[in-house]
Amino acid sequence: MAMPNPAKRVTQGQFSFLPDLTDEQILAQIKYALKNDWAVNVEYTDDPHPRNTYWEMFGLPMFDLKDPAGILMEVNECRKTFPEMYIRITAFDNTHGWEAPRMSFIVNRPSSEPGFRLHRQNRNGRNIGYSIDAYAADKPEGERP
Amino acid sequence: MSDTETTENEQEFEKLPDDAAVDLQAEFERSQVQEVLDKLDNELVGLVPVKTRIKEIAALLLVDRLRRRFSLTSETPTLHMNFTGNPGTGKTTVALRMAEILHRLGYVREGHLVSVTRDDLVGQYIGHTAPKTKAVIKKAMGGVLFIDEAYYLYKPENERDYGGESIEILLQVMENHRDDLVVILAGYKDKMDKFFESNPGMRSRIAHHLDFPDYTADELEQIADLMLADQSYKLSTCARQALSEYIPIRMELSHFANARSIRNALDRARLRQANRLFASREKELKKEDLITLTEEDFRASRVFLDGKLDGDPADGIMNDMNFDEK
Asked: Which of A64, A108, B74, B297 has the largest count of CB atoms under 10 Å?
């Protein structure tokens, strides 16, 4: 079977097919979010399953910021606390009609990303159902690296 | 972080060879700092030592910017400041202008002023202070953090006070994020001196100490004129006389807060004027009547009548209202 993701990198959110963003590029992206009056949050998780949409928020939500430096400070704080987890920045647009995240991109990855296991389930009438599991989430929470 | 700073600067002006010549005047005009300095001169009466100091700081920063073009210094100078002076001497206003100057010279990215006091920084229970202080710091990044009555942060009489935690975080940020924000502390001179005595780390991180002198009676009168002009009022000749008599008497009384007291006196005069106009409402009014404060608007002040402050809670305005329903 063809490898869909030979680099063994989780591809979620914006820029995830690109090399990791530098701090400078991250600052520029946050600046764009702040310019649009979006609330920017730092979130982390150790389970990269694509359906795992609600990640933990790091610290408090940040409103009324003018400058991206404060958010990068929080990102670095989070990187220090959870160096082996996925960390992403989301920018939430609260304007009526949107009320949804407008940006979301990964700013930190674990040193190794083992990828996903594909399960095939035999169903009625020789149908096959597929599901995936992140190897990273194999162990119970708290025992993961 | 520092990576961004240097690249931004490089984009802004390329490095020069050693034998190049630069035009300080052109650089000065390009920064448009003069505009802010003029505004400072026009808006603020007196305060000569402060204005001189600000010009010095502006000159230093400008020269520093030129030096950087020759790759002479790379480190951002320490810009944290301490404003001491009695209430109403213009500390907040100057801080606002300072933010603008720093912004025009490119030392802060956004140039906004976040004005806070102890309550905004210090929490009420364990673990509350750090996130609170950090949230304020994050808001102020790219601009100026103005901490009014900063000496309240440290309460030596209570060793379980959380103020110390806040100071520690501030110190760290003042050191590590010098590119990102400028902290200005403000407060009464003697209390700030005591504050620095018990927080030597804070003192050494602050480069500029500016003392705001009290205004003289003449300066206060000029300030009154500026305020009135701002609000489209004017004084009749007799009222002017009354005001210049009022100011020295008020200066002797307690709770004198320089420009702020003058503002309050004018506000009360406006109140009396409105009352006076309302009392004689049969008469036709002209524009002139609406903008003129007369002698009686000032002479009715209790500062004149019995040498006490207006609006003392003990008697006066509160009693006049009389809460009829009861």
From this structure: B297
